[in-house]
Write a structure and sequence with these properties.
The protein is mainly alpha-helical. Helices cover about 60% and strands about 0% of the residues. It contains 6 helices and no strands.
Length: about 170
């Protein structure tokens, strides 16, 4: 009677990889939250296609949270080659801000030179924080995806217009 649900790993991996790739690219990362929710919805869509029964909101949340965790890992790995680009962008932003701010402490525009962005501890801390946030957004996207794509017709429920009356020729419907 219970039908086996398909594995959630591959749909979460595909949706998370797509969302993480888009979230890690410098030009389109400004829509990071949207990519995470969309990647989780994509995971729910793939899970629904492989499932013989309807998805529940809980299953959508689980596949979405897994997708968010995968997206965090992919985003961190993809963003490593773009670190120099991001630092240069931040440097130019700080230089332009220095023209408009007079009350900032001296040397504040040079804080990028003193920071160590690619230390393993900083990488892991950023990964954990990102994974937590992306998992929450992914759960939201998974719930949305399950509600949009996870419905399957139930053959046991009669369609509208079908009679619920027993097959007795002497029976009249009220």
């Amino acid at each position: 009677m219970s039908e086996r649900k398909p594995d959630m790993f591959m749909p979460a991996l595909v949706g998370g990889a797509a969302a993480g790739l888009l979230s890690g690219l410098p030009v389109v990362q400004c829509m990071c939250c949207l990519w995470i929710i969309g990647g989780a919805m994509l995971s729910a869509l793939f899970l629904a296609r492989n499932s013989p029964v309807s998805l529940t909101a809980g299953e959508g949340a689980i596949v979405g949270a897994l997708s968010g965790i995968f997206a965090a890992l992919v985003e961190r790995l993809v963003s490593i080659p773009f670190t120099a680009f991001s630092r240069e962008f931040a440097r130019k932003l700080l230089e332009s801000m220095s023209r408009f701010t007079e009350e900032m402490p001296s040397g504040w525009e040079n804080w990028l030179d003193r920071s160590r962005v690619l230390t393993p501890a900083f990488f892991l801390l950023g990964l954990m924080i990102t994974a937590f946030i992306f998992a929450a957004l992914g759960a939201l996207g998974g719930i949305l995806g399950a509600s949009l794509f996870g419905r399957k017709p139930n053959p046991q429920i009669p369609l509208q217009g079908e009679s619920h009356a027993p097959q007795n020729p002497g029976y009249r419907q009220p």
